[in-house]
Amino acid sequence: xxxxIFFIILLSFNFCVINAQPKEGTKAPNIVLKNPEGNEVxxxxxxxxxxxxxxxASWCGPCRTANKQFRKLYEKYKNAGFxxxxxxxxxxxxxxxxxxxxxKITWLQVYDEKSIVADKWLISYLPATFLLNKEGVIVAxxxxxxxxxxxxx
Length: 153
Known about the structure:
By secondary structure, the chain is an alpha/beta fold. Helix content is 37%, strand content 22%. The protein has helices spanning 2-18, 61-77, 93-102, 116-120, 145-152, and strands at 32-34, 40-42, 50-56, 82-88, 108-111, 128-132, 138-141. The longest helix is centred in the first third of the chain and has 17 residues, at 2-18.
């Protein structure tokens, strides 16, 4: 009985360590997901840029509203080394692809089929964002409006 309890505790601990949400001040783990064309895009390929990782879904009203702000920020700062790595948590690809067109999204989009990355990052609500500096270190989480723009500058 004691061995079973110990084993369960050990498994629980391993789950928490393996699936820990990245913290501010730590380097973001690499993510490799497919874009709408089916090509893999690695987060690591954006090294040297300020990157906003954005977990979102087409069915999420606040996410769609955030896309409007992101579109303005992206247009303003893309030539200054700013990139957005948007990760769709949609259940299927069709609504995601439709939302990309409807929201006139021009920044990087990738699909987290089966929400594997979202689960590993312990994403419990949408939208969820992480701002990375040029070295790939998480410097802020869930910034919006002027606070997000100031952090990007």
